Amino acid sequence: MFIGIILSMILFQYVISPMMGQNKDADMMTQTVLRVLAGFAFIIILTGFGYQGIFRFKEPLKALLMMIPALIISINNFPIIAFFDGRAQLIDPGYRVFLFLMESLSVGFFEEILFRGVILILLLQRYSQQKHGLLISVILSSVLFGMVHLINLWSGASLFDTLLQAGYSTLMGMLWAVMYLRTQNLWLTMILHATYNFFGQVMFYLGTVNGRYDTYTIGITVILGCFVALYAIFCLKETIRIQSASIR
């Protein structure tokens, strides 16, 4: 039954929801409302199964400070240099930016409940007795998160763009999984996810971007990526160490 619920949620998010397009405003509002309703329905179901602890807002200030490097990655997903150079311009009205922000928040809310709040937890339980169970769970949940983006081929996306999206979604899924495990705060992980989507897509969806990846942007992105990857590895090791100490 539980697996059926998860598969139904994935079907809704990546197959049914993208096919519900109307006009741009109505589409954003409809999908936002549906994701929020589905997310709260999932919370009710999980609470009924005894997983209410997933949704506790634990140590928000401490968790936020730990997540700052990951938040920087989210902000850097915006074409900052292209925007200030005039190569990225917002075309749609300001109210639509707000609608897109709400939609991004709904995506972060829904997908984090599904992939970090449910699938990751189930995998942790499944591999709890294995030596590298935590690492296996992070990798598997993140690969699954990346693979569901292959469904975008269904809507006509190019193979290269879809594979690229699946690849970086897997990496971001690993980062968000580590941040959640380190802080035990799913709500702030939702914010990381939402801001990454918002900053990375707002100019492409509501404006125009030409030559986003200039030399400086690539250099900054590579440096930040390497730094945050090392930070995530450190956080994962700390989580494993704390978990091991609690078992003894």
Please provide a written account of the structure:
- There is one protein chain.
- With 248 residues, the chain is mainly α.
- It has one domain (2-247).
- It has nine helices and two strands; from the N terminus they run H-H-H-H-E-H-H-H-H-E-H.
- The chain has a two-stranded antiparallel ribbon.
- Helix 3 runs antiparallel to helix 7 (159-183) and helix 3 (60-76) packs antiparallel against helix 9 (215-247).
- It is globular and about 55 Å long.
Q: Name the shape in a single word.
A: globular
Describe the biggest sheet? 2 strands, antiparallel
**Numbering strands along the chain, what is their spatial order in the largest sheet?**
1-2
Number of helices: 9
Helix/strand order = HHHHEHHHHEH
Helix % is: over 70%
Structural class: mainly alpha
The radius of gyration over CA amounts to 18 Å
Q: What is the first-to-last residue Cα distance? A: 34 Å
The number of domains: 1
Q: For this entry, what is the oligomeric state of its chains?
A: single chain
Instruction: Report the sheet-strand fraction.
Output: under 5%
Uncertain residue ranges: none
> Overall pLDDT, averaged?
89
Question: What is the strand tally?
Answer: 2
Features:
globular; 248 residues; mainly alpha; 2 strands; two-stranded antiparallel sheet; 76% helix
